[in-house]
Amino acid sequence: METSPTVAILATLDSKSQETWRACAGVRSAGARPWVLDLSLRPHAVAGADVTAERVAEAGGSDLISVAALDRGEAAAVMVTGARQLVSDGVERGHLHAAMGLGGANGTWMACAIMRELPLLFPKLMVSAVAATPAAPWYIGASDIILVPSVGDLGVNRVTTAIIRNASVAAVAMARSRLEQPEEDAGSAPVLVGVSSFGGTAACVARVQEGLEAAGYEVILFHASGSGGRALERMALAGQLGGVIDVTTHELTDLVVGGVYSAGDDRLRGAATRGIPQVVVPGALDHANLWVGEVPERFRGREFVRYNQQNLLMRTDAGEYEAVATLMADRLEGASGPVAVLIPRHGFSEHTRRRTVDLDGEPVGVWQRPEVDARFGEVLGERLGDGVLREFDLHINDPEFADACVTTFLDLVARSAEMDDAGEATR
């Protein structure tokens, strides 16, 4: 077993060599070993990398001379492919215990693209000149990368040098923790269940969590703001979840409408593909999230609620419900494990008590429109049938509805176990 941690340092030595050496010094001062992987897109004379750019290009199926002739995006893609292979191999062999990137816009994209492929909970840290920009969520994706703003552009001065040193020491501390942490016996740990959450479904989520924990499960909540949904799907697909109670499928509305909290086209696919038990609820499907002041012209005649200084909630209409129901049915029909969809007829979020306004803030009407919400269940019922879909004369935040979610999930778990036993008996 390794006695001293090793930190992978990902950087382009042709432009960030001095920053890299300061990161190496910080890692060594904290009692660890740096392992420098050069992501440069062209040949250069800077020595000192543990893995040269030439070696990275070869691992990516090319050579550095050829990479240098490509445009920037294509060249970066080759180097990322090679670096992913080399870093992942080091992690799998137990030779690497943390990864740290240094870069501007392109360097951040490359290093984060490499680190996003590493396992969740493996320490990942990025010192970046663009960490504090609106692009930050796209660098992180569904991973647990820690972004450290460099304040100034990367270079060698008292500010950036101190930031790099602090980040290096932090990376070593995380690496040491990983190295020294005893392996948990997977057989003795509680089954981890994913639950999607949002402010508008908070009461339901809290009671579902309470019910699951009382039944002996461990719960991880995923905030339905895009990155949360992507993380849920990634963990489900990777086999890190034993089941899902998808209370807050809101991100599907944003996917259909083009809202700011879309989790992309993979939403609601992970558990279905993996075959784990899943309970699905239309939580917060009754609205899309838009930024205040950035509402597309095509939505000017719609009804809204201003949630806070940044978020504007647009009320879902019947046509959008039809599109969301179709998406949901497409994903759930092919699920390889047990599925149930539970629909609360009296409201999909806490916003049912609110009044709506237009874009000028003038009152328009009321949020609660059961006849519009009903269109979702009608379309979904035509595809999934009574065996999967159940409707309740309750609001999503009624305690009885949350209890029904937990009870249904436990039934699905039992059914899944029976299916597994039957499969074993036939083999």
- Determine the mean pLDDT: 93
Q: Please state the structural category.
A: alpha/beta
Low-pLDDT runs? none
Question: What coarse outline follows from CA principal-axis ratios?
Answer: globular
Keywords, please?
five-stranded parallel beta sheet; alpha/beta; 427 residues; globular; six-stranded parallel beta sheet; single chain; 43% helix
Describe this structure in words.
By secondary structure, the chain is α/β, with parallel strands linked by helices. 43% of the residues lie in helices and 18% in strands. The strands form 4 sheets. Strands 7-6-8-9-13-16 form a 6-stranded parallel sheet, sandwiched between helices. The chain has a 5-stranded parallel sheet with strand order 2-1-3-4-5, sandwiched between helices. Strands 10-12-11 form a 3-stranded antiparallel sheet. Helix 2 packs across helix 4. The two termini are 39 Å apart.
